[in-house]
């Protein structure tokens, strides 16, 4: 589902954020990406949803060679990927329903189907009763649920979560991670979670990738932080 | 494919645009206000400039060349010269005034005593026939006068002399000056509006990045903003049109008694509607172009 071959990313400033990285993530996998700040985690996922272009090497996501996608076609490629951010990034002037529906509207989904899918997704994330609320009326955890709902409503093959629990308290964080797990189980979506939260990684043991200095230091399928490296 | 999607979604984009204007409250109001103020300025200056132009033209039109023929020349012979004058480049109309017409005019201009005195000349009219020549461009007055002077049997040609020439050049300057002023003002106004729209769009940079994130194509993002610009332009032109409508009526009616026919203002209709149409077009096109240009830099991948 996600495949990186000898990928290097050097920014215009000369910073080598990703250095000769190789990784392979299969369909339906649930993967944690961890590592210290400035290690290249963000660049890694930006390469995946084509916010950045690799300087060299091949990035393949959902069967497409990402670096070969024309600028004009990027929006269409993005429809295959759901992205969730630390700061939620909801449209503040739209209601919860409209926020989630927006991801479907841009793909010209018929209105009836939008309604059906949004309802279903709201149920999945447990916010049926908040459909008409505006984002600022919700708590952080609820906002993140809306963001997740928006990311998965058009059934993407890959869901990327960049520090989804970074702004949330531990209890809420657990709820969010459990939600992501449920999505992984129910929809068989490939999920990548970038996180700093040791407890979460240790509690829900999954494949974990440790990135340091732009390289993959440890890639384990047993989960948990490798001793002493972080 | 993108185009079809845009057309199909047009009503939705319109709705989004209206919704954005409504939900962005203060920002929208300030944009509309900027449009309103600049359009009022343009409207007032434009209307004043157009009327000044009209007036200068009508003054210039009233400038004529007075051609006196030789006194001995009979009316019939004098009339034969008409085609010769008409042939001259830049001559608009030539009207003939016979010997007796000239005397009538002279008598008319005198007081009671004079009238009686000149009436006695009726039988033996000492005056020559005359031509009144209108020219197309007042600048050519002197040149045409010179050409007429060279025609046979012409006794005297009067084009008004130095003062007329300087009047013509002054009017020319006024006209050009006001046109330049209006154009400059329009350009400034357009920049002001475009800038305001740019500000409102910059404040929604996150919104645009989110739209891109969920896979909205560039045109899908752009269209509602462009429509929003158009709507703001149209809303902003309402007040200027009202100002124009009522203001022009008031000024026109009060000027009617004050100004002579030569300096009359333009008829209110269809002038007001033409200006109103122009204002709406100006407001909405600036909104459209302004938002198109400002959003461009946020749509680069």
Q: What is the count of β-strands of chain B?
A: 4
Strand order of the largest sheet of chain B: 2-3-1-4
Largest interface: A-B, 24 and 23 residues
| Number of β-strand runs of chain A | 10
Distance between the terminal alpha carbons of chain A, to the nearest Å? 28 Å
Gap between N and C termini of chain B:
20 Å
CATH superfamily of the domain at 1-80 and 159-164 and 192-222 in chain A: P-loop containing nucleotide triphosphate hydrolases
* Percent strand of chain A: 25-35%
Number of individual domains of chain B: 2
Rg of chain A, alpha carbons: 17 Å
Mean pLDDT of chain A: 88
Question: What does the model show?
Answer:
- The complex is a heterodimer of chains A (230) and B (301).
- By secondary structure, chain A is an alpha/beta fold.
- Chain A has a domain at 1-80 and 159-164 and 192-222: Rossmann fold (3-Layer(aba) Sandwich), CATH 3.40.50.300.
- Helices cover 33% and strands 25% of the residues of chain A.
- Chain A contains seven helices and ten strands.
- A six-stranded mixed sheet of chain A has the order 6-7-8-3-9-10, with helices on both faces.
- In chain A, a hairpin with a 2-residue loop joins β9 and β10 (215-220).
- The longest helix of chain A has 18 residues, at 170-187.
- Chain B has 301 residues and is an alpha+beta fold.
- Chain B has two domains: 9-59 and 168-296, no CATH class; 64-159, 2-Layer Sandwich (Alpha-Beta Plaits), CATH 3.30.70.3040.
- Chain A binds chain B through residues 49-50, 71-72, 74-79, 83, 89-93, 102-103, 105-108, 150, 154, and chain B through 5, 8-9, 12, 19-20, 23-24, 206-207, 209-218, 220, 300-301.
